[in-house]
């Protein structure tokens, strides 16, 4: 696992604007999302990044390609960086979820970390993928890597790198157009 890395979230998508859960489905980057990826690339241009590891989902792949092209880094797809699997709720808004799964919010609130999306996964399950992704990126990179992933998985990556518990992991936020530099468990935002 790399001790020094950068972590970015994909740029804004159409479904982000519509407040739809994306999970492992996909939605294209908006024009703002493309600008966000370009902005991230400018901020990390002189940081010694040699490898951009990215989620296989189109929104992360597109973001990573923009960044890697600007900084001259290698691109490596890491399947474990994919977003949380929202199962049957993927593509839905919370209003639609409330109609189709009337107890979901209540059940989720009772055990947010361990609750699994119907037909999908829980944060607890996804944290294992986050650990594997860090290991994969460490082995694949010859220098400092940048990981391009998603908000939910980004929370789990950051929590693991910082040694945070489940509750603290879920309280983290990772907006688009933000890059975190993490060095030996210390985090700073670029």
UniProtKB/TrEMBL annotation:
Domain of life: Bacteria
Entry annotated with the keyword Acetylation: no
Keywords attached to this entry: Glycolysis, Isomerase
Keyword S-adenosyl-L-methionine tagged: no
A Pfam short name: His_Phos_1
Residue stretches spanning the membrane: none
UniProt cross-references to InterPro entries, sorted A to Z: His_Pase_superF_clade-1 (IPR013078), His_PPase_superfam (IPR029033), PG/BPGM_mutase_AS (IPR001345), PGM_Phosphatase (IPR050275)
Name of this protein: Broad specificity phosphatase PhoE
Species, as recorded: Microbacterium foliorum
């Amino acid at each position: 696992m790399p001790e020094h890395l950068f972590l970015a979230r994909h740029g804004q998508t159409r479904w982000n604007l519509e407040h739809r859960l994306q999970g492992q489905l996909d939605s294209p980057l908006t024009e703002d999302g493309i600008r966000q990826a370009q902005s991230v690339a400018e901020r990390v241009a002189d940081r010694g990044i040699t490898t951009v590891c990215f989620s296989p989902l189109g929104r992360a792949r597109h973001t990573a390609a923009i960044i890697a092209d600007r900084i001259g880094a290698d691109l490596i797809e890491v399947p474990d960086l994919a977003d949380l699997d929202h199962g049957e709720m993927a593509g839905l808004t919370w209003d639609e979820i409330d109609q189709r799964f009337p107890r979901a919010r209540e059940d989720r609130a009772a055990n947010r970390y361990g609750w699994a999306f119907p037909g999908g996964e829980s944060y607890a399950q996804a944290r294992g993928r986050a650990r594997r992704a860090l290991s994969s990126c460490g082995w694949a990179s010859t220098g400092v890597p940048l990981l391009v992933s998603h908000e939910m998985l980004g929370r789990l990556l950051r929590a693991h790198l910082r040694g945070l518990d489940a509750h603290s992991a879920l309280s983290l936020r990772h907006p688009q157009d933000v890059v975190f530099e993490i060095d030996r468990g210390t985090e700073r935002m670029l």
